């Protein structure tokens, strides 16, 4: 359990910036933002497409919402995002951004120059794979791919690997890339640059619903913003989120929404 000083002020216990969404995927950054909020982080800022700011605000009065210059992330938005990242502990980015060339170009620049820690999901994973000579530096960087996204990053299929081979591969890549990797699946495989490995076994098939990965990215980012390492944040977030899936399935069966799952995080 994380501890807080009695003398702490607003923002001392986690500032998370979430950047995501495009004209099609409005829910992904909202769910990531709600995940960060439910982690206990003090402040959660969203930057979303220009036509989605009012929608995002309706989901929580605690979300601080700003906008892209248009309906998808473009290179002209990079300066604003990097400026906001200066006052953030963690940037959660990629959720629902899509893969337009201009979006991937902007993502590559943000990933290279972001001054704070990073949680990279969805489109940000593809942008990272396209970077040459990426260096995490002093930043904590967490990647949250599923098998299909890992395939694309490696440009080869991992579907034929045994679970043990997959664990070894994730460990190797985490060390090689100097990042923490959370390979999402029925059992989440988590590895960090130091060679640490953890397998999370909590969860339920009800969690195949769209948006569960977005919430997880936000949870990880929120815990990191409160001082956890990438590895510990990933372990805690996957465990708790999996327990939510188990609980909601036992309580309500399969006829549940992602919103109901989010509300059961506490």
Oligomer: single chain
Tell me how many strands there are: 9
How would you classify the helix and strand content by structural class? alpha/beta
Major sheet: size, sense and barrel closure? Answer: 9 strands, mixed
Q: Tell me the helix content.
A: 40-55%
Shape: globular
Q: What CATH architecture do you see?
A: 3-Layer(aba) Sandwich
- How big a fraction of the residues is strand? 5-15%
What's the average pLDDT?
A: 95
Return Rg in Å.
17 Å
Spatial order of strands in the largest sheet: 3-2-1-4-5-6-7-8-9
H/E order of the elements?
EHEHEHEHEHEHHEEEHHH
CATH-derived topology? UDP-N-acetylmuramoyl-L-alanine:D-glutamate ligase
CATH class: Alpha Beta
Q: List segments where confidence is low: pLDDT < 50 over at least 5 consecutive residues.
A: none
Distance between the termini: 14 Å
CATH-level-4 superfamily name? Ribokinase
Q: How many helical stretches?
A: 10
> Could you say how many structural domains there are in total?
1
